[in-house]
Amino acid sequence: MSVPSRVQRYGGGVTMAEATGTEPAHYRDWRPLVRASAASALIEAAIFLVVGFFVLRNLVFSLDSSPLFVTAVKTVAWAFRLGGTCLLAVGLLALIPWRYAPLTDTVVSGAVGLVFVIGGGIWVTSDFMGAIVLLFGLMSLNSARNAWATHRLIGPMAASNTAPSASATLEHMLDDAAQDDSASTPSETKTDHVPEGSLAEFGRDKPEEENKTGKDA
Predict the structure, then answer these.
(1) How confident is the model at residue 54 (pLDDT cuts 50, 70, 90)?
(2) In b/e form, how buried is each residue of 75-114, taking b as 16+ CB within 10 angstroms?
(3) Range 107-127 average pLDDT
(4) Other C-beta atoms lying within 10 Å of the C-beta of residue 212
(5) Is 143 exposed, middle or buried (CB count within 10 Å of its CB: 0-12, 13-18, 19+)?
(6) Chain segment 131-186, per-residue pLDDT in tens
(7) Continuous H helices in the chain
(8) Could you tell me if 54 and 43 are in contact, meaning their C-beta atoms sit under 8 angstroms apart?
(9) Distance between CA atoms of 142 and 182, rounded to whole angstroms?
(10) 32, 193 in Cβ contact below 8 A?
């Protein structure tokens, strides 16, 4: 039966991962991946906060603006503000790192992206600014897709790191088996005792009898 590569032992008690410098993907550390996702979340949060609190700070509507258009623009403005605040929190949590930061990023970016796409679609019918909002929506949906891929990638890694008892138990079993093998192997070759009068004793004395017969002749 083959043994998983992580617990195969080499000389001096070195694992295969330590000897070769490689390790299966589901045994790697997930924390650097979460920290790496923090940069995109923080950049996206900064852009959203600037647009929400400065670019869309003072909204002025014409008298002939439809209620649907006004509602869509105000909703988009608040989506920038709330989405930027939530993504700022997600980015900080990813720096800790928090395991579920990519999953939270998926939910926030996905929700904000949908609001931007719907609101931008309504906005673009009356102003070119709606096209920019649509672009932000597509970018947010793409960020949600990337965050979901990161969450799925770190899932097996985090599971193996938080529950290492199975591999540790197997490694201890292999170590115990190796110790039992070394203890059962004799260090020196012992000569078996041959009782007197046996066939082996008779065969061992036969050359001496032949030598005596030759001398007498």
Answers:
(1) very high
(2) bbbebbbbbbbbbbebbebbeebbbbbbbbbbebbbbbbe
(3) 95
(4) 10
(5) buried
(6) 999 999 999 999 999 999 999 998 887 776 654 444 444 555 566 666 666 655 55
(7) 16-20, 31-50, 67-95, 101-123, 129-162, 165-184, 199-216
(8) no
(9) 58
(10) no
